[in-house]
Amino acid sequence: MTGGEFASLNQLNAAIIACEKCPRLRKYCKAIAREKRRAFRDQTYWGKPLPGFGDPSARVLIVGLAPAAHGGNRTGRMFTGDRSGDFLYAALHRAGFANQPTSIARDDGLQLTGVCIAAAARCAPPDNKPTPEEFNNCRPYLIEELRLLKHARVIIALGKIAFDNVLLALNDRGIATPRPRPAFRHDVAYQLDGYTLIASYHPSQRNTQTGLLTPAMFDKIFKRAKLSLAN
Predict the structure, then answer these.
(1) For the residues of the chain, what is the DSSP string, one character each?
(2) With 209 labelled, which of 85, 117, 144, 175 sits at a CA distance of 20 to 30 A?
(3) pLDDT of residue 220
(4) Which one, of 114, 115, 133, 113, lies nearest residue 123 by Cα?
(5) Residues 9-41: tens digit of each pLDDT
């Protein structure tokens, strides 16, 4: 993929869903989809790479790490059906970016306004740890999303890995990483040639249960995004 290969987000999403670049991840996702978790044994798992989700006219792009094995890999939608998604979509609803505070299934009526959600890796990885090569294989999809989301001006990176991958994707789009290199710290923003890159802790269950990321802290991230769009 050299950039500019897809005419629309729909074309890009179809390519993501059909992707077989990473044999380890594809094998793992398919195995999880067959074995299932007991609580979801009556459900049909998605088991494929996850496309982006949200508003094609989004001015805010949220980038996470990777789908959860029994979350996105089960439901087929970013941050859907797991605790991280519960925390994220509740915050998006409070901020006025989502029409409802929950995301449990692809057909649950959830709509996002002004926001699109992507990830550094599109397949659920074992131990939640894609390899550097797997991130490299997946990054062209994020690069294409940046190109096709023509109104996006704010990028929220959830966690350091997403933050680093966004910087690499922007490099490919011709936006050089400043020197000194931007450091990942929660609720810090950087101006990068037309984009505001905002760093946030990931809404993982570990971060939210320990209080490293609270609802009030997360709300500040989306308030900062709105202020950036207003300036």
Answers:
(1) --S---SSHHHHHHHHHT----HHHHHHHHHHHHH--GGGTTSPP--SPPPPEE-TT-SEEEEES---TTTHHHHSSTT-SSHHHHHHHHHHHHTTSBSSS---STTS---BSSEEEEES-SSPPGGG---HHHHHHHHHHHHHHHHH-TT--EEEEESHHHHHHHHHHHHHTT-PPPSSPPPP-TTEEEEETTEEEEEE----HHHHHTTSS-HHHHHHHHHHHHHHHH-
(2) 117
(3) 98
(4) 133
(5) 999 999 999 999 999 999 999 999 999 999 999
CA distances from 101 to 42, 53, 96, 112 (A): 25, 16, 10, 11
| 1, pLDDT greater than 50 | no
Reported residue count of the chain is 231
Q: pTM score, two decimals?
A: 0.96
Check: CB of residue 81 under 8 Å from CB of residue 67: no
CATH code, residues 9-175+183-230: 3.40.470.10
Structural Rg of the chain based on CA atoms: 16
Token reading at 91:
């915050």
